Amino acid sequence: MKAEVPVLEIMSTDIPQLEPFESVENAAAKMVEHSSGCVIIVDEGKPIGIVTERDMVRKVLSERKNPAETQLRDVMSSPLVWIPRHIGIMEAAKQMASLKLRKLVVLHDGQFQGVVNARDILQIAPQMIEITRELADIGMPSGEYIADSIQQASGYCESCKGYSGMLEFMDGQLMCPTCKESLE
Questions:
Q1: CATH number reported for the structural domain that contains residue 122 in this entry
Q2: Range of the domain at 177
Q3: Which of 183, 120, 94, 106 has the alpha carbon at shortest distance from 152?
Q4: 81 and 119 both lie in a single domain
């Protein structure tokens, strides 16, 4: 099994895309319809966040919120941490382990391509279970990794609140290039 297999070859592509103001209830129905474990949240066609089944359980159901009244923007994970479609499965596994994530969004030229999850990788490379555990044990702390890979974040700038596909970590905040430049 070659570790150079790109995530493009194993990612799931039938992932629902919904607007931030849609309900968790609607998202759950779309997830069932598409046999997907997540939905991608888009704003004007740009991916800005993700909501997983786990998010729904932890942020809605366990808190006894009404899924019909809870908006996706209130439970989505954002900024969106993503990988390019040509990244190999080994690198994807390293990122998942370091960031303690089970899914990574795949983008190309700012456009949503799909989602790769740990199960996708382990189905074609089961020997990677131990490798990902070891990488998580010996790797750098996830906070450092996030700061080092933040060039891969898309979402809303914490300074101006505008959307950017190129958020960067500066002074403890995720900022768009314009706001970052104004501080330099």
A1: 3.10.580.10
A2: 149-184
A3: 106
A4: yes
- The pLDDT tens digits for 10-64 are 999 999 999 999 999 999 999 999 999 999 999 988 999 999 999 999 999 999 9
- Does 1 map to a domain? no
168-180 CB burial, b ≥16 within 10 A, e <16: bbbeeebbbeebb
- Estimate to the nearest angstrom the gap between the alpha carbon of 16 and the chain centroid: 14
Instruction: Let me know: does 83 contact 76? Beta carbons within 8 Å.
Output: no
- 3-class state of residue 36 by DSSP: coil
Residues 47 and 121 grouped into a single domain: yes
- The sign one gets for the Cα dihedral 81, 85, 86, 88 is positive
82 inside domain: yes
**DSSP labels for 105-137?**
EEEETTEEEEEEEHHHHHHH-TTHHHHHHHHHH
Stated pTM of the model: 0.70
